[in-house]
Structure formats: C-alpha cells, structure tokens
Amino acid sequence: MTPGLRKFFASESSGGIVLALAAIAALLISNSSLAAWYQAFTQVPGEVRIGGDWLVLAKPLIVWVNDLWMAVFFLLVGLEIKREFVAGELSTRSQAVLPAVAALGGMVAPALIYAGINWGDAVALRGWAIPAATDIAFAIGILMLLGSRVPASLKVFLTAVAIIDDLGAIIVIALFYTHQLSPLMLLGAAACLAGLAVLNRAGVKRLDVYLALGLLLWLCVLKSGVHATLAGVATALFIPMAGKSAHDHSPLETLEHGLHPWVAFLILPMFAFANAGVSLQA
C-alpha cells in the first residue's frame, strides 16, 4: 500500500468520505439507465443452510445488509457507548441524562408533528413512527466526514443521542408494527442474554465465546420478529472492559479496534449504497 493510501485509510474523515460517495453513487445509478441493474443488485438472493432444512435463511442482499451487517455496526457503536458510560464522557448520571432526554425529544416531537399534519388520514397516520427514527449510520458518517473539526465530547453526545433514538425506534417497531412475535424465539433470545451475563460475571475474557453466543442471539432476535440489529447492541453490553492483566488490551478494546475499519470502509458504505438509491422520477 502506498504512503498516500495508508494515510487516507488512517484518516478519521476518510470513512465518512467513502460513505458519502456510496450514497451519491446509489442516487445517480438509481436515476439513470442503470436503475434496473441497481434494483436487481439489491435483490440478489443469499441463502444459508444449516443441517439441511433444519435452519434456512433465504433473504435478498438488502435484507442481509440491513439485518446482519448493521447488527455488526450496532455492535461497534454499542462497544463505544459502553466505554463512554462506564469510564468516559457519559460515566456520571448528569452526563448521561442529557443525551437520553435529547433522544426522547428527537423521537416525540417529529412524531407529534407528523400526527398533527396527517390527523385526518387514518392510513397515513399509521406512519407516525417513521420520522421518529434517526439514521444513525448517516449521522455518524457525517461526524466522520468532519474529522478532527468536531470536538470529541460532541461526537460522544451525538452518537449517544443517535443510538438511544434508534433503540427507541426499534422498541416502537416491536410494540406497534410487529404483528407476529415468536414467544419461543424471544425465550431463546432471553436465554442467550442470560448466558452472556453469566460469562461476564464469571470473568471470561475470550472474545470468540461472546461472539458465538451473540450470533445465536442475533438469530433468535431475527426469528422472533423484532429488529435483529438490537442483538448487536445487547451483545456489546456484556463484552468485558478489563483485560487479563493491567498490560493487556481488554476484549472490548480488541474488538472495537478490529471492527472499526470493516465498519467504516465496508459495512457503512454498503448500507448507504443499498438504501440511498431513491428514484426521483416521480
């Protein structure tokens, strides 16, 4: 790798640049003669089979990106927020309250405005939750794009607001827009969470054990009818912050540093490309 490319990939803003370029490319392609190709690309089928027909996951590319890849993204931001809540900018109650209140206001106010505008339309009124969600991927991408010009404390605050807002939106979807919940899969997800808690309390430091149980948690949440990205945040909460010794990196730090380049240069750009291709022809 040339020194110029090495410097580019080490830059804090480079991930935001890649995400912005991916979103622009999706908009241009979906509004050109390649629109049919773009739609076909987002619907490329992908299938995972375990034990023959015992477990079959057959979904188009856009669903894999939004449900699995973004669960990895939520795992990363969950790790960052845990670190800030435990030993960083949000470690005191007074510091943590502000982003929580801001996130709540950011959900309630847009929903009330939407409801007020569409009060006479019963069908449109059902979409009240749509403006309540913050697109955390693009929000963090913009912060990355601005790089060192954004104070670290502001980045932590806005990231916490976006994450809390997104978790609130997932809860809203689960309560008001999920018609078929699977009690068995929800019970399986609860068992996975209990297992993660036991590992954490027992002082287990092996990342592979946590990630294997986190993957099983993702599967249970996906099959339960609740948005699967919630599993990423839940898994992050149980990753230990202390290493085997004072000189070792903690499992949280190891995983966080390992995920950063994959999220910045693959997961977020693919999310942007797969979701930003909105047709403007109408």
Task: Please tally the β strands and state the result.
Answer: 2
- Fourth-tier CATH superfamily name: Na+/H+ antiporter like domain
Briefly note the CATH topology name: Na+/H+ antiporter like fold
Output the CATH class name: Mainly Alpha
What is the second-level CATH architecture?
Answer: Up-down Bundle
Structural class: mainly alpha
Comma- or semicolon-separated keywords:
mainly alpha; 12 helices
Q: What can you see in these coordinates?
A:
The chain is mostly helical and 282 residues long. The chain has one domain: Na+/H+ antiporter like fold, CATH 1.20.1530.10. It has twelve helices and two strands, in the order H-H-H-E-E-H-H-H-H-H-H-H-H-H. Strands 1-2 form a two-stranded antiparallel sheet. The model has no long low-confidence stretch (mean pLDDT 86).
Short description:
The chain is built from 12 helices and 2 strands. The model has no long low-confidence stretch (mean pLDDT 86). It has a single domain (3-272), classed as Na+/H+ antiporter like fold (Up-down Bundle).
